[in-house]
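Notes continue from the previous slide.

Worked example: a multi-chain complex. Inputs as given:
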Amino acid sequence: MSYRVTDPCNGCGACGRLCPVDAIRGEKNSLHAVIRDLCIECGACGRVCPVHAVTDPFGIVCTMVKKSEWERPHFDSKTCMSCRICIDACPVHCLSLSGAASPDDPHGYPYMAEEKTCVGCGFCARECPVEAITMVVSRSG
Amino acid sequence: MGKILWVDLTAREIREEIIPDDVYERYLSGMGLAVYILYNRIPAGADPLGPENILGFVSGLLTGTGSLFAGRWMVVGKSPLTSGWGEANCGGSFSPAIKRCGYDGIFVKGISASPVYLYVKNGTAELRDASHVWGKDAIESEEMLIAETGGKSQVAVIGPAGEKCSLISGICNDRGRLAARSGLGAVMGAKKLKAVVLDGKRRIDVHNRAEIKRLSQMCNKWVQFQPPLPSGKGAAYVGTLMRVLPVQMAMDGLLYKSLLKKWGTGSMNQMSVEMGDSPVKNWKGTNEDWGIARSHSVNPDAIRRHEKVKYHCYACPLGCGGICTVQGKYGETHKPEYESVLSLGGLCMNADVDTIFHLCEVLNRAGMDTISAGAIAAFAIECYEAGILTKEDTGGLELTWGNSDAVVALIEKMVRREGIGNLLADGVKVAARKIGKSAGEYAMHAGGQELPMHDSRNDPGYGVHYAVEPAPGRHTIGAQMHYEMFQLWKVMKSLPRVKPLYFKGRKYMADEEKAEMAAACSKFMNVVNCAGLCMFGAFLGAKRIPTFNWLNAATGWHRTPEQYMEIGKRIQTLKQAFNIRHGVDPRSFRPSDRVMGKPPQTKGANRGRSIDMEKMISDYYTQFGWDPETGRPTGESMAKLGLRGGEDVV
């Protein structure tokens, strides 16, 4: 299963530049292709394609979304257990771990370190075992 | 089906191999996958430091599935320290990195002509020149390799100890954590493989992630429950109380978890000495030699004052680790573990906590096992005391008990393999043989592996596992205390129950029930190590950490705990068969006499205790259907597990 780039593709290369695993190949102004074995189904290509040329693994055409309207993770520090699963799950390494929260709470917690890098894939929320992450539109990207 | 990556350093070839489903069904993944590969593919009699030895880096079946505590990776190979099955494991972030590259394990054979590192990213793998980091310490190397590969890689790397093939060297990740035992850093050094650098982003598929999350949330409630605890000093006196009482309270992992959450493993620093669990003065001392007043500098509260932030391994809700601020050139270091504090402290009678912090960082950077280093220093001090080693031999060092500066200087010489350090850098067994005279009497080891900081005269179960495990001298498999905390009888009714309160004398009886408990610990820990779980998580107790349910949810199987334990038994038998194939006599792993109370101590917590280890070892072998005298798996025991003992056992 993977995303696919289909005929309407105009070869603008936006998807390839955003793909976190370099799974999209193609010459400028020509039809691009997704390498199935590399695709991690983050959906970034679909969100950025201006000509609706990307389909998801179920064959549904993806809709372009303005970057400022992409969902991004919001952390509930009371539920978070500092396990770092979200940081590992992030394919673009945009999350990081803070220093000790306070003298009374010596744990570090995940936070959005590089918001511009976030592709809104939601892998962090999907993998969080205790549902401490919700994906929300922050309108700051 | 899963994949492993094969690297031949001699031929400079890299290829993927598909692992059939039935291998996973019979061996799970992680440790089980590793023993299946190594048993079948390392030729009998292979030189551990030669090209035929295979070094494996494996993740766990549950790693990346959302299961808690599933962040352990393992390194495996034929051990140059014991000449048999070798394994070591470590936390941090390296285990999921293996999975994110799309592999369940990375296996390396051959020897490179020059130093290299393996770099894996987005479906490509290549060997790169490592001459610029060869000779640099493990942390510096890790930072350089991360920087030159984009800043986000995970790295397993050897330090100078591994490069110089010290037989007590390990493999480092997460800036100073070490997979330390079995001397597998030397195998990596001999192969001229400086590091494995991983930058994978693959999704990890799970049969039923929602169910795993449900189980994890249930488990997390137990982890986050934190009862009030005494101060560090109070904890030490709890140890005193445990020593003087004639009865023993069965250890509940919930209490131990609470200690870990507050202080880390260092919670036991003084408590263990007080109750007789920690060996002192190269195993000839007692709690009276290293009492609360003398060892106050390593009290858990004293250590915690250095902690600037807690450290969690991947997928760990507990966070027993920490990063500490320290004086001196390094500035900070990982919070010293109990094992490191007691081996570099009480075992050498060293009460200077600053030197312990310093040595931990020195050894982490060198990639050298802190347990073995402390044990070797204690061995050398006793040799010096006995006149077997002289001041001339030591290069002017006054190796006396409690001489902190001398311990530091000695261990730094070991790291550099300089003078007496070169003699000692391959462990106490090798050193005793080279020194000759009566040095062997002072070498505390099992099969060449220096012993951890848990006294078998206090808990004979430790002694059993030191002696019977295919990778001997381990405190991370079983003991009476481990069995009590695992609480396996709550999910497997056929296993012996432990009463909440029992007379201490019961602990020292070499009866069949002890063997059943020990065998259960071995089998269960094999499952834990297949899953990639942390032992401290398993200590929560079988009803609180859903090991078997997680495995079913991750795979889609519907197996019973008993069926998983059968896999653990198969793995243990194949590891034992590995040793037989390589000419290792299991009985040679019997620990040194002193460790078993022969002769018994005349004072202290363990006075008068002598352990009938021979019977306990035989009883353990019987539990697995192995020959009770020789420890060799019989044809019948192999056949029952579907092991043919040939080139391909599946």
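Summary box: The two ends of chain A are 29 Å apart (CA to CA). Chain A has a mean pLDDT of 95.
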